[in-house]
Amino acid sequence: MKLEKYQNHLFKNIKQQLSQWFEEDKIDEITNEEVYRFLHSIKGTAGTLQLGGLMQLSDHLLLASNEMEIEIWRKNELRNFLFDLIELTYAYEHFNDVELKTDVHRKTAAGLVQIIDDDVSMLIFLKDILEENGWMVITNTDPEKATQQYFDMQPDCLILDVQLPFKTGFQILDDIQQHNEKYFIPKIMISIQNDKESRLKAYKMGADDFIGKPIDVEEFLVKMDRHLQRKRLFDQSVLIDELTQVYNRRFFEDSITRYFQDFKRTKQGFTIAVLDLDRFKCINDTHGHLMGDQVLMEFARFLKQSIRSSDIVFRYGGEEFVIIFPRASNEDVEKLLNQMIKNFSTVLFTSKDQTFSVTFSAGVYTVEEEAVTPETAFKRADRSLYLAKRSGRARAMGAKPSNMLFKKKELNISIVDDDVIIRTMLTNILESMDLDHLDMKVAAYENGGLFLASNQAKENHPHFLILDGIMPDMDGLEVLKTVKQAKNAASFTVLMLTGRKSEEDIARALQLGADDYVTKPFSVQELQRRIERLVKQVK
Predict the structure, then answer these.
(1) Which of 5, 204, 486, 512 is buried most deeply by CB count within 10 Å?
(2) End-to-end Cα distance, the chain
(3) In angstroms, rounded to a whole number, what is the distance separating the alpha carbons of residues 366 and 328?
(4) What single-letter DSSP state applies at residue 183?
(5) What is the C-alpha to C-alpha distance for residues 62 and 220, in angstroms, rounded to an integer?
């Protein structure tokens, strides 16, 4: 007897109940009696339909709900409680593909690979085989957007096609090399034009490898593994930031542990300051990344000249720096940094006959208690930095108890998908993410029309949009096109969920401005890692 028809009917019933509980405004609370009936029904039906895992899980949840003795469930509590069941239902619906993808062994400290190629079939092919081998991949077909994405995402390896529209791969390589030559990021050129002249040109312009098309997959993967190993070894062996010549983040993480050990031994406190250049993205956007790098180098030089020989400067990442001040109080460091901000604001930069100045903001925290961990200390200094930013920038602020209540930066997150299982899973994942500097407002919509009509879509806050490509009435591409033509288009980061074989849709989504795509059905864990990485880029 074919059970698929009846299994699909069970999945449909589960979805209807989830939709009623979690998406109808009139329902705020759910009784445990309803939850019990729901789980009991699944247990009985799933067993009959040979869905053994679903039967066992619903049985486990029935026992758990009895032990918890909860009479009334709130929506978010119940969504967390049922998350494994929701995830398993999704996996059953897409059993073959999801099973293959969840078996992927992600490499330790997996690298981020960026692929730039206007041949969408090649782009999808390379992305699939790299992700099947445990690497995370971002893709782009548009040279201008790809170059911007390269600087924003800072990949561990770049794969670049030579033949691109409007701008060749050599021109992109030249743009990157001009102001990125001090960073070691393996760059691999790929091309159907595999002649000696092209290969020599690529190597002379800074490429680390050249692979001709058609690509031998086995050889390609070995080379990728080798390049990413070199990148990892390089990062582990270097303590100085290549661009700014101050200590790097890795050395900071080693140093902060040592300072805490010294503090426990000597009881002499120290102060951590987290510094961030104000409106640095505007400098890159207005004057170019080359000018942005000059600002970073000058800022690092200024910091080193403005502090004591016993203080240490680190570049934490991007335009963010950290200074450790041994035996210095919160008040003294705050006062010093405020004076440094005034002094740095008088430094003038010149770009194309335009002169401009730059300020920075700082958050300060003094370690005076043994119970505080390095993670907590950094987090408190970082919170003070965001308070300084929210208070108008160009100031240093110390961590005081009242500072803990500062208003975080708002981030709208919208999920637009007609599948309630996906909406519920993603809502749960996003609401469980803990990002100190962001106040995330998560909302789910079952179609594009509801999303576009919502107030959330019209607000000017940074907006992370997860968009299903195929939906009834108005598909994801239409929604994406409308979003990208709106007045607040610049505030959107878009992740498209697309069909595995819909190559044309992927190409169209990238052309319309999607920042990344994931093919359905997806591994929930894989999608969660990708979402976390994209959301953390939002400042």
Answers:
(1) 512
(2) 55
(3) 8
(4) S
(5) 50
Pairing of strands 320-326, 312-317: antiparallel
Residues with Cβ within 8 Å of residue 487, at least 6 apart in sequence: none
**What residues form DSSP beta bridges with 445?**
416
Contacts of 350 (CB under 8 A, 6+ apart): none
Q: Which residue has the tokens 């002379």?
A: 204
Percent of the chain with pLDDT over 70: 91
Burial of 353 (0-12, 13-18, 19+ CB in 10 A): exposed
Q: In 3D, which of 211, 155, 205 has the Cα closest to residue 181?
A: 205
Q: Examine the pLDDT at 97 and tell me if it is beyond 70.
A: no
Q: Alpha-carbon dihedral of residues 514, 515, 519, 521, nearest 10 degrees?
A: -100
Tens digits of residue pLDDT in 369-421: 888 999 999 989 998 998 898 889 999 999 754 444 445 678 899 999 988 88
pLDDT (tens digit, 9 = 90+) per residue, 270-328?
A: 999 999 999 998 898 899 888 999 999 999 999 999 999 889 999 998 899 999 999 89
Enter the tokens of residue 486.
């709106």
The C-alpha atoms of residue 35 and residue 535 are separated, in whole angstroms, by 33
What does the block give as tokens for 249? Answer: 């983040």
For strand 409-416 and strand 438-445, is the pairing parallel, antiparallel, or unpaired? Answer: parallel
pLDDT confidence bin for 41, thresholds 50/70/90: confident
CA-to-CA distance for 257 and 374, rounded, in angstroms? 7
